[in-house]
Amino acid sequence: MPEFAASTVRMKVPEDAVSLPVRVAGVDLHEWAAEAAARRVGADTPDPKLRTALAAELREAAADSRGRGPVTALSYVPEPRLGELARIELSALVADDTYPALTVDLLQRYLAAPTADSYRPPEAELRTLPAGPAVRVRHAYVRDVGRDGLGTVLETCAYGIRADETWGLVLLTSWQAQAHTDALCELTDELARTVRVTA
User: Fold this and answer.
1) pTM beyond cutoff 0.90
2) Which of 61, 69, 154, 175 has the CA that lies 20 to 30 A from 1?
3) What are the residue ranges of helices labelled H in the chain?
């Protein structure tokens, strides 16, 4: 068993976030999304199209996050009529034969590596969190580039947190609404400070 399997990882859930069922087997995503959308919108909302649209978005978000296997995943929906503003995922990274010791430097190289899709160079800075030493990385990517060369900018704010030398955590918030970048980076900073690891 990986070292982290014996540990409990906790993180505060923002008030306007919906917890996605990424680690629960046997969940019918259609049924779950319909119930989650009704709770988030309010059962007495007169517009059933709003519940239907949000349910479809939550179902897609859950399926998408589930494919990456995070410890936990959240869909941040402060205004249900606008749908998902951001996705928040907390994942575990485990040392292996290639990288037998997990270091903050390794986390920085992993999170701050430029890619062919990078919109601008990543920005990294070292931090100290209650869960351990960390690196914070801001990055932006261009996705879904069409024949005209235009695409969608996806922004991210991530924390690589070293729990110990055998494993660590990655807290990743991603979004497309650039007008909310500062607020979502602040939210990620707040969440990173709430991450706790107990044996």
Assistant:
1) yes
2) 61
3) 29-41, 48-66, 104-111, 181-194
